[in-house]
Request: fold
Amino acid sequence: MPETKFTSDHEWVRLDGGVATIGITDHAQNALGDVVFVDLPEIGREVTAGEAIAVVESVKAASDVYAPIAGKVVAVNGALADNPGAINAAPTTDGWFFKIETSDSGALDGLMDETAYAAFVDTLA
Amino acid sequence: MADSTESLLETPLAGLHRELGGRMVPFAGYMMPVQYPAGIMAEHLHCRAAASLFDVSHMGQAELVGEGAAAALERATPADVQVLKPGRQKYGLLTLDDGGILDDFMVANLGDRLFLVVNASRKHLDLPRIESLLPAGVTLKPMPDRALIALQGPQAVAAIATLAPGIAALSFMSVGAFTIAGVPALVSRSGYTGEDGVEVSVPAEDAERFARALLALPGVQPAGLGARDSLRLEAGLCLYGNDIDETTSAVEAALTWTIGKRRRTEWNFPGAERVRDELANGTRRLRVGIRPEGRQPARGHTPVHAPSGDAIGEITSGGFGPSLGGPMAMGYVAREHAGDGTPLELMVRGKPLPARVAPMPFVPHRYAR
Reply:
């Protein structure tokens, strides 16, 4: 299993064979509360790192989800349309948002590992 | 978040909220629980199924005393206050001279005085405004040493009546004084969730003991401001600052029912000229309910377009209705687009989301009529 990396925007990223799977962290889903809708990007869209490409809506509010790396969107989690609650129930597995194909094998180098992300979250409390 | 929370006030229940795991956020100058560990969805559904306790102590409470207090208050509102019998309460608007809405409020006739509840965010404006309109002999007394607790839901009255059986006999929008768990309490059969229930004013020093006594009752769970907001929106009720404000009139806001029949012959309330004209000639815009198609919510400030692309209004409150099982909104649209079923486009992040004008409430009221 490839290592999971984290952004300061509370996305997690797992890169496997040039394709990164991206979702939001358990901390993020907990802060958002009950998720009721997700607006996912078009497959085939070229995105830049840091670009807002999806929106997650909770009962309370709408929040942007950013592309942590540059590349092309090659898959989105269509199951979230009928079951957005998967983002709350299983944020780092079934609740994934989209996959981005990248040619940059070092794309995740600047992101946090799990220990660093946990320490980062502690600074927000 | 750069804003300092140091200057924010707390209600007498702040310690209890933290003990219960409440997530505290700044609201109207107070640190208030937006939700507890159960979450907004569960708290909302619990209120519709059983009974939920809300701390609304941030709201302003005041007494109006003296000969002619009801007539005096009518200088600040188009509500018919004089028609209120002892033990009865009503909802009304405080209006400005130009017809804008200063606030919405509740007024109860307690026999020897009137009891007012106003919004937290507006109390610093409401009370001086009312005071400035009072004749000699009528006095407004703010009650900063009181807490206000709402118990809402189909099991709310049965639950609290185990502590004070007389409460069960109150009809909707009636008030009475009771001793509950040893605490002197002013109880009104009212609320702002669309459910049956009560709002209870108690001395601040007794508030925590009183709240704990309610939370110990079967079926009662705490709920935060998040659930209160989704419940009131499902019930089609306005939130001051979102759905009504100093620019909106009672007629535009579809709140003409708060203007007393007698007041419509006397036309002697602040803003009467505008209201009279709008009742006769109609308004350019109207507050309506809106149902987006699909599951995507549209939030406050979302622009509303006609299918032709013309901008015709704006959403003032919008979200997801847990009991409704879908998105819901209210807002203002041009009068010719205000009919039930009229197709609209909500411009959510620049993309049109199809929607229709829909009757409110979105979830039927269950008041104890």
User: Anything to note?
Assistant: Strands of chain A lie at 4-6, 11-16, 19-24, 35-39, 46-47, 52-58, 62-66, 71-76, 98-101. DSSP finds three helices and nine strands in chain A. The CA atoms of residues 39 and 75 of chain A lie 14 Å apart.
